[in-house]
Amino acid sequence: MDKVCEEALSKLKALGIDTQLQADLEWCLGSYKADKNPTGLYEMADRALVIFNTEKAKKTKGVTAKLTGDLEKALKSR
C-alpha cells in the first residue's frame, strides 16, 4: 500500500494537482513508516483514486489505467 501511495503522490506532484492531498499523503506515509498502521494510507488512496478517475475521464496526460488499477487493487486488499 505504501508503494502505491508513493506512486500516487509522485503523480499528483508531477501533474501539480491537489496540493492538500499531496501534503496529507506525505504526512500519512511518514506516519506509516513510524507506526506501520496503514489506516491513513487507505483513506488517502480513496481520495487519490477519485481524483485520478476524474482526471482520467478528462484524458489528462499521465493518468493511466495502470495507476488507477493499482490503487483499486491496493484498496481491495484491506
Taking all Cα atoms into account, the compactness measure Rg is 12 Å
Q: Total number of helical segments?
A: 4
The SSE order reads HHHH
Percent helix, as a range, is over 70%
End-to-end gap: 9 Å
List how many beta strands DSSP finds: 0
Proportion in β-strands: under 5%
- Structural category: mainly alpha
Q: Return the average pLDDT rounded to an integer.
A: 97
Task: Give an account of the 3D structure.
With 78 residues, this protein is mostly helical. It has one domain. Helix content is 79%, strand content 0%. It is built from four helices and no strands. Helix 2 packs antiparallel against helix 3. The model has no long low-confidence stretch (mean pLDDT 97).
Topology:
Layout: H1 2-15, H2 19-35, H3 39-57, H4 65-76
Helix pairs in contact: 1-2, 1-3, 1-4, 2-3, 3-4
Q: Short summary of the structure?
A:
This protein has 78 residues and is mainly alpha-helical. Helix content is 79%, strand content 0%.
List keywords for this structure.
78 residues, single chain, mainly alpha
